[in-house]
Amino acid sequence: MVLRSISKHVKEQNWFAIVLDFIIVVVGVFLGIQVANWNTDAGNRLQEHAYLTRLYEDIEESIVNQTRDINFLNMQLADQAIVLKSLDSCAVAPDDIIPFQRAINMLGFINVPRFTRRTVDEMAASGRTGVIKNVTIQDELTRIVALIGWRSGFIDNTSRVIESRRFVVEDYIRYDLNQNYPDTFIGEFAAVNYDINAMCADPKVASSISIISFYTRERRNAYRPILERYNKFLSMLEQELKNRWGVRLETKEVIQ
Q1: Which end of the chain lies in a sparser environment, N or C, as judged by fewer CB atoms within 10 Å?
Q2: Is residue 210 part of a domain?
Q3: What are phi and psi of 196, to 5 degrees?
Q4: Residue 131 gets which letter from DSSP?
Q5: Integer Cα distance of 90 and 83 in angstroms
Q6: Phi-psi label, residue 184: left if phi above 0, alpha if psi -120 to 50, beta otherwise
Q7: Is the residue at 253 inside a domain?
Q8: Is residue 170 part of a domain?
Q9: Number of folded domains in the chain?
């Protein structure tokens, strides 16, 4: 329609009308581009809001899981100290029976760093990591992913060392699968039959417990900064959602 009008005005040598036609074309193209850009920006903004909200939920879940694991490692360290005390005295005190049993059951159980990465993986797979406009949030998320990868890289070596030491202890025990001990933290665990005199007579048993305890503490200390990082990042996400979208969220900060 516009081209027909321009052609007609050219034949008529109506230069004013020709200039007006060209202005209409240019303005139309400009408006079309702007509308497309506005639609793209609006879509990106909605996508960014969705990603930030889901990242918040993922980090909240990561905090809960990492907090539980740190508490579990703290419990293991306390129980392992009781085992070492019992080996030193060649006796298990009545109040120490359950912690002793639990320590043997859970000896060397260590998880990788807890990181719920559903949204991170989706963003990476779709190539939409750049949709988050806040560079500080982008950088912090990158640091968290790198930190998790670095800490996870040590778990295989830690597991191998702990497993070899656990074998030493297991030579002196036998699980009684017909008897269970209740526990509010880990649930029920199987009873362990053991000869404390035989265990304390072999110095390798105490040495193995001590080494496992060392690696347990190392993991606990390595995971504390991760939890602190999560808490910091959760606050950043909360502020971003509040400042840009008016979304008010309650940060549940947990520091061990």
Answers
A1: N
A2: no
A3: -65, -30
A4: G
A5: 10
A6: alpha
A7: no
A8: yes
A9: 1
Domain holding 130, by residue range, is 2-71+111-195+223-245
Measure the CA–CA gap between 232 and 234, rounded to whole angstroms.
Answer: 5
DSSP assignment of 196-209 equals: HHHHHH-HHHHHHH
pLDDT in tens, the chain (256 residues): 555 655 655 565 555 555 555 665 555 555 555 544 444 454 567 888 899 999 999 999 999 999 999 999 999 999 999 999 999 999 999 999 999 999 999 998 999 999 999 999 999 888 877 889 999 999 999 999 999 999 999 999 999 999 999 999 999 999 999 999 988 888 899 999 999 999 999 999 999 999 999 999 999 999 999 999 999 999 999 999 999 888 776 544 433 3
In a domain, 93, yes or no: no
Nearest-angstrom CA–CA distance, 241 and 52: 7
Name the residue among 141, 144, 145, 137 with its Cα closest to residue 238. 137
